[in-house]
Design goal:
This protein has helices at residues 24-52, 58-85, 88-109, 114-142, 148-174, 179-195, 202-207, 211-219, 221-244, 252-264, 267-297, 303-323, 331-340, 344-350, 355-383, 389-418, 420-438, 453-461. It has 462 residues and is mainly alpha-helical. The radius of gyration is 24 Å and the shape is globular.
Length: 462
């Protein structure tokens, strides 16, 4: 029997969405992120110049860089808890100021005190680590859901651009400035990172602004559910407090464990984290060790090493441009396919191919990594409870950055024992197979607990 469909209210056409790049609040946040990225990537290069000028020894360089990594890993979880407990803008401010304060200490210790430089490097790493989850959560506070993928693509372009521009600009400035002045310049970049971002909270104002907010609200339905749950919880807590008085704040450990429990509520997040760790700790580590060896031994030139690394960064920039506008139906599956594409990099190093093939493989790997990163970050901002977002983001940084040095430490002995080709083959297989297995996890297809609103509407209409 054919039934007449119920009349639907006429829908006014949605106004064109203004580019996030025209939003002053986001541009301030983007400027701060770019400055922090430039400072982060310039520091190892400047310290390398100090070795060339004999102001720092090779062993001292290793110690200082290790201290920076240790500071990052120690502070990233603390920063996640603080950014959920207090103002995210304040966490960005104070963590970036700490990194800025480390720069003159590094300059003072250069050639005089390795102990002071080690302490300063740990302080710089701590500032960098504490601000990373806060920056990511502040993006969600600043940009409404419908424009977050574009915003995250712009953020990752800033990071990738910094990997190219940071060392290049530093090399140019080194022709005119000494190492101590360059270190002070890095401190100035951290001051920009501290002062440029605004307070966030623009999303709430946009929600009251009119029709544009309605379209954003439809795309961010998951966040609306979380907000409703949060409001209900706060109402219950307020009622309880009116009778029993305010409850004491949970301790740091309890709040961190609460972030872990929130992460476990999202199987797609855990699967993506496992796949990311496999690619970074195995694929990226293997290629980092093997590429210089193969560039020297097989091709007899350093050009392949430089060209491949540049192609990777350029490919990542291209991938970010693509994903800023691309909206795959099965977002999670497309992202895992992009992550798995990193396997072509170790695969190209296994075979006696023309150097151009190696360079092209690295470009493909760069494109793929951003086809994963941007939707992954956007989904985390959309699906995770807003008051736990920074803690969940800190888990991402802690696990992926924390296991990368372990992979680097193990790959070199493995290559010495088994040979470069078997190790590369195993790492390429892991890059292909682990993301493929992660894509089979429930909720991984859409990086969401339920299918997107558009897909559900299509099925109901059919």
């Amino acid at each position: 029997m054919v039934t007449t469909p119920a009349p639907t209210a006429a829908k006014s056409p949605a106004p064109p969405t203004r580019s996030v790049l025209l939003d002053p609040a986001f541009l301030r946040l983007w400027a701060g992120t770019t400055a922090s990225g430039l400072a982060t990537w310039a520091l190892p290069f400047v310290l390398g110049l100090a070795v060339l000028h004999r102001d720092l020894g090779a062993a001292g360089l290793g110690l200082v860089l290790a201290a920076r990594t240790a500071g990052f890993l120690a502070a990233v979880t603390v920063g996640g808890v603080l950014a959920d407990r207090h103002s995210r803008r304040a966490v960005v401010l104070w963590s970036a100021l700490a990194a800025a304060a480390a720069a003159p200490l590094l300059a003072a210790g250069l050639g005089r005190s390795l102990v002071l430089m080690t302490f300063a490097a740990a302080l710089a790493g701590a500032g960098q680590g504490a601000c990373r989850p806060a920056f990511q959560a502040l993006t969600a506070d600043t940009v409404e859901p419908g424009r977050r993928q574009q915003a995250n693509a712009a953020m990752t372009m800033a990071v990738r651009g910094s990997t190219l521009a940071g060392p290049t600009l530093t090399a140019l400035l080194a022709a005119f400035l000494d190492v101590r002045t360059l270190l002070l310049g890095i401190g100035a970049l951290w001051l920009v990172a501290a002062l440029a971002p605004g307070k966030g909270g623009v999303v709430a104002a946009a929600t009251e602004a009119g029709p544009g907010a309605e379209a954003s609200a439809q795309q961010g339905s998951a966040e609306a559910d979380v907000a409703t749950e949060k409001t209900t919880r706060k109402t219950a807590e307020a009622t309880s407090e009116s009778v029993t008085g305010p409850s004491p704040r949970a301790g740091f450990r309890a709040e961190f464990l609460e972030g872990i429990r929130e992460a476990r509520r999202h199987p797609w997040f855990l699967a993506g984290l496992a796949a990311l760790v496999a690619v970074i700790a195995l694929g990226y580590s293997a290629t980092s060790v093997a590429l210089p060896l193969i560039s020297r031994d097989r091709y007899g030139t350093e050009w392949v090493l430089a060209a491949a690394m540049t192609a990777y960064t350029v490919g990542a920039l291209g991938g970010a441009l693509v994903i800023a506008r691309l909206r795959p139906r099965s977002q999670g599956w497309a992202a895992f396919a992009g992550l798995g594409a990193y396997g072509v990099a170790p695969l190209s190093l296994m075979l006696p191919v023309h150097p151009a093939v190696v360079v092209a493989a690295y470009a493909v790997a760069g494109i793929g990594i951003e086809l994963f990163n941007v939707p992954w970050i956007t989904a985390t901002q959309r699906e995770v409870a807003p008051d736990k977002l920074a803690r969940v983001s800190s888990l991402d940084f802690l696990v992926s950055y924390g296991l990368a040095p372990i992979g680097l430490a193990l790959i070199a002995p493995a290559i010495d024992h088994f040979g470069v080709t078997p190790v590369l083959a195993a790492c390429a297989a892991a890059c292909f197979l682990v993301p493929a297995a992660a894509a089979l996890v429930p909720t991984a297809r859409h990086f969401a607990g339920t299918a997107p609103t558009e897909a559900r509407t299509d099925r109901l209409a059919g």
